[in-house]
Amino acid sequence: MPEICRFYGIVIRMYSADRAPPHFHAEYAEDEARIAIDSLAVISGRLPARAMGLVAEWATLHQQELATLWEKAKRLEPLHRLDPLP
Q1: Using an 8 Å Cβ cutoff, are 21 and 38 in contact?
Q2: CA distance 36 to 20
Q3: End-to-end CA distance of the chain
């Protein structure tokens, strides 16, 4: 599963074999959540509140790019990395 970003101990990944709705995976320590790209709602899993806040902030900045990466993943094209939070 390609890692598309890493910041503050949080790893963001996207699987090409995942099914709709469009989403990404955020991992922090032993926790993981699947997050919808369009609404940024948690589909499944959980993250600590602080990590979830950072993921939401990052995803808001990259929402359009995440949607584009989802489409590339579905076509099995290589995914590029996105900038982390500063």
Answers
A1: yes
A2: 9
A3: 24
**Residue 14 CB contacts under 8 Å (≥ 6 apart), including other chains:** 1, 2, 4, 24, 25, 66, 69, 70, 73, 79
C-alpha–C-alpha distance, residues 60 and 11, integer Å: 16
Contacts of 4 (CB under 8 A, 6+ apart): 12, 13, 14, 24, 69, 79, 80, 81, 82
Query: Cα–Cα distance between 26 and 31 in angstroms, integer?
Result: 8
Both tokens of 60, joined, read 């808001």
- 12 CB contacts (<8 Å, ≥6 apart)? 3, 4, 5, 6, 24, 25, 26, 27, 55, 58, 82
Residue-wise pLDDT tens digits, 17-66: 999 999 999 999 999 999 999 999 999 999 999 999 999 999 999 999 99
